[in-house]
Write a structure and sequence with these properties.
77% helix, globular, Growth Hormone, Chain: A
């Protein structure tokens, strides 16, 4: 199978999986509000569900990445897709916050797709192709996050639809978010079928045979140690530190955005429904599709991955800090232009970071490095959701400087720190030296 065919199939596998993942975004906060007892802090429980997912990914992403170095990318991808199918179904039928928490924890354990798909691209790509192909994969994420939230918003609470009463008196009335979760399960199953029937292994058997075989416990211990080792690598450490701060700020936004938009107009929010929030993330995903699918390749060729990553930190941070200052009476029309900055900046940062990490890693360690990267992303997401939930609950009812604007200002601050760490490090422009021999040989 040609590399072009492999990329097309990988795109489809990631696409259907990310559509399923994106479906839960618009209604997660509303689901927590519906399951919570009177007086329970909503922000903390939203943070807990997100933290369960991120914490599990932190522990298990390096394991899946290292396992893919040993047994291949394809079987690990299939395990993740199959596990996601189960996790979404359990989440949809949850009748308590604790059951929902377990479902998100399980989803984090089995979600092996991100680091492994990144490593897959590194396996089949020449150095000068990495940024463009990471952008193509990023476009699959963008399409998923565009279509998924729209589906999640539209399919939420079907028993309340005015055009049909088919769902009244059914399980979909007692579990108003089962229908979108069921759609997620179906889509992840489709992704699994694509992987098992169409996707070929990218890692040669010779490379797999040279990888040391370790028990799961040994792998976990080694991978935790690997995080410390990667932070001692001159270029890799700067890439990881900067992304750690960026991901914390970006994740804070994921916790507080819908908490903010669902607030009543009189309280400073937008009074949005699940469907309204679905359209926000659909729009964000659309910007990601255009940026990572069409623009990242030409932009990388012209400016380089380092410059794009640097600009992305600043652009995204500006957008994140501006969100709560949009006048509520403008509604979606006022909020969407600000979200353009968030989406465009993030779409510059993510593929550029993956390209730089790929350039700085060898073939036999690429899965491990990508696993460490995704584990740190999960760790920073864990920290971000905890910070976001606690800061929101502590400030939402306050007046003065430390009010509901505070968590969004923190988002911008963390992005600024990320820019400083990267821009003044030895990782900035490091790809120029790495790619110079390849350019001479072309």
């Amino acid at each position: 199978m040609s590399q072009k065919s492999s990329m097309s199939i990988l795109f489809l596998v990631v696409l259907v999986d990310m559509i399923g993942f994106g479906i839960i975004i618009p209604f997660l906060t509303y689901m927590v509000a519906g399951l919570a007892e009177p007086g329970q802090p909503i922000g903390r429980w939203v943070a807990a569900l997100m933290a369960a997912y991120a914490g599990a990914m932190f522990l298990f992403s390096p394991f899946w990445g290292a396992l893919s170095d040993r047994i291949g990318r394809r079987p690990v991808l299939m395990m993740g897709l199959a596990g996601n199918s189960i996790a979404f179904l359990v989440f949809g039928i949850s009748n308590s916050l604790w059951m929902a928490l377990f479902a998100r924890l399980f989803a984090g354990v089995v979600n092996a797709n991100v680091s492994v798909t990144r490593a897959y691209i590194g396996d089949i790509s020449e150095p000068h192709e990495v940024a463009r192909r990471q952008g193509i994969l990023g476009a699959a994420f963008g399409v998923g996050f565009s279509i998924g939230p729209a589906i999640g918003g539209v399919l939420s609470a079907p028993a309340e639809w005015t055009w049909t009463s088919a769902f009244v008196g059914t399980i979909f009335e007692t579990h108003p978010y089962l229908l979108p979760c069921l759609a997620s399960t179906i889509l992840s199953t489709i992704g699994f079928l694509f992987a098992i029937t169409k996707l070929q292994e990218s890692l040669p058997k010779s490379s797999r045979e040279t990888v040391e075989k370790r028990s799961p416990v040994q792998t976990l211990k080694t991978n935790i140690t690997n995080i410390g080792k990667m932070y001692k690598r001159p270029v890799v450490s700067s890439l990881l530190w900067s992304m750690l701060f960026f991901w914390i700020g970006f994740t804070i936004m994921h916790v507080v955005l819908i908490l903010f938009t669902m607030m009543a107009l009189a309280e400073g929010g937008f009074g949005f429904s699940e469907r309204d929030n679905g359209w926000i993330f659909t729009f964000v995903g659309g910007v990601g599709i255009i940026t990572q699918g069409r623009l990242i390749g030409p932009l990388s060729d012209r400016f380089g991955s380092s410059s794009l990553m640097s600009y992305g930190f600043l652009i995204c941070g500006l957008g994140l800090a501006t969100i709560p200052y949009v006048p509520p009476h403008l509604g979606l029309g006022g909020l969407l232009p600000v979200m353009v900055l968030v989406a465009f900046g993030n779409s510059l940062v993510t593929p550029s970071n993956m390209a730089l990490l790929t350039h700085a890693s060898g073939a036999k360690e690429r899965g491990t490095i990508m696993g460490v990267s995704e584990s740190l992303r999960a760790l920073s997401s864990f920290a971000g959701v905890i910070i976001g939930g606690l800061v929101w609950d502590a400030t939402v009812s306050r007046t003065g400087f430390f009010d509901f604007h505070t968590p969004f200002l923190l988002c911008g601050l963390f992005s600024l720190i990320a820019w400083i760490v990267f821009r003044f490090s030895n990782a900035y422009k490091a790809e120029d030296e790495i790619l110079a021999p390849a350019e001479v040989n072309v």
